[in-house]
Write a structure and sequence with these properties.
Layout lengths: L2 H20 L13 E9 L2 E9 L6 E5 L11 H5 L7 E6 L18 H18 L5 E6 L1 H12 L4 E7 L5 H18 L3 H10 L7 H15 L8 H11 L5 H18 L8 H4 L7 E6 L7 H10 L5 E6 L6 H4 L1 H14 L1
Parallel strand pairs: 3-4, 3-5, 5-6, 6-7, 7-8
Antiparallel strand pairs: 1-2, 2-4
Helix pairs in contact: 3-4, 5-6, 5-7, 6-7
Length: 345
């Protein structure tokens, strides 16, 4: 290849890389004079954070999703599972401090605490209510996001009309113990000496190496669980980060850095979380969505907590064909449930 051709190819590769990294992210428009489709960065606390706001009628009820993880931001793939909700809600996704599009290479990493994220959430809820003229919003948390959700309710539920906990964290220490014992039983049943050795070396919770031990335990459960049909959220994240309109190449890089930082700063900090001790009564309707095969946040604990919790209205909903991601695995059922909840408000 001639030198000039090599230079041209190199220039094209560099140009393509620049476009991939820095092309403007956006969210597709929604038809209708009252529709809203915004990908916005707002100042929350001491840093900019990103919201995805979508709906066919901006006067409809607002529903705010608190993603799991910590660090598993969902703006990059949210539309895949939430487009059905846009008919009846203003759907808001928020990449939390240090996660996804809200990650900053220059952020104060010591500000990444659970208490700070709860304060951020409260500020965002107030922003949404004031901006769109609402008294209250519907709050949905998943996994880690359910810890945030219950902390918000415990502090002040005046801006929340209903709370939906999906894969609710109840008693972190007891949940880890149940998950560990289930993984051990599966390894024994399948005569997996390598898995047994890993579990025995880790020892029962609390783990010394929280991140790696938890991942090993979860991988054993995924490998041998009788249920094999939960969605592959990792694939959704990869595809969404690289290919969705809401994300560019730089966002994909930020996602990876944010996920790592969130794990380092936040995993293991919630070992004392115990709703049996902290929240025995709430003053708003609550709904718990539990996958029948969920051993990440064991559903047996969620059911036990539900039975003891005092609330003006409460419901426990089994998702019989799901593990830890019922909102995706049984998406139609979940979306219909949210509409029914909204109609009760």
């Amino acid at each position: 290849m001639k030198k000039k051709n090599i230079q041209r190819v190199s220039a094209l590769i560099i140009l393509a890389l620049i476009i991939f990294l820095f092309r403007p992210a956006y969210t597709p428009s929604i038809n209708g004079s009252k529709s809203i489709s915004k990908l916005v960065s707002i100042r929350v606390g001491d840093q900019n954070q990103t919201l995805l706001i979508r709906g066919k009628d901006k006067d409809k009820p607002i529903i705010l999703f608190l993603h799991g993880g910590p660090g598993l931001a969902q703006i990059c793939y949210a539309r895949k599972y939430q487009s059905k909700l846009e008919d009846d809600f203003v759907v808001v996704n928020w990449d939390q401090r240090g996660s996804g599009k809200s990650y900053s290479f220059f952020m104060d990493k010591d500000s990444l605490t659970k208490n700070q994220i709860v304060e951020d959430a409260e500020e965002i809820i107030e922003y949404l209510c004031k901006t769109y003229g609402k008294e209250k919003i519907i709050l949905v948390g998943h996994s880690w996001g359910t810890e945030l959700g219950m902390d918000i309710i415990k502090k002040d539920s005046s801006r929340i009309s209903s709370y939906i906990g999906v894969g609710q964290v109840v008693d972190h220490a007891e949940g880890e113990r149940i998950s560990y014992e289930y993984a051990m039983d599966l390894a024994k049943q399948n005569q997996d000496s390598s898995a047994l050795n890993d579990l025995e070396n880790m020892g029962s919770p609390p783990y010394k190496d929280v991140i790696n031990s938890t991942l090993k335990q979860e991988n054993i459960i995924k490998k041998y669980s009788p249920f094999k049909h939960d969605v592959n959220v990792t694939n959704d994240i990869i595809k969404g980060s690289l290919l969705s309109a809401e994300s560019n190449g730089l966002d994909a890089i930020k996602y990876a850095f944010g996920n790592k930082l969130s794990a380092e700063k936040l995993w293991g900090t919630n070992s004392e979380f115990n709703l049996f001790d902290e929240v025995q009564k709430v003053d708003l309707p609550v709904y718990f969505c539990a996958g029948r095969y969920d051993y990440t946040t064991p559903s047996v604990l969620v059911k036990k907590y539900y039975e003891t919790l005092e609330a003006p209205h409460k419901e426990f909903i089994w998702f019989e064909n799901s593990a830890h991601f019922p909102q995706y695995t049984e998406n139609d059922k979940f979306c219909d449930l949210l509409l029914n909840i909204s109609n009760k408000v």
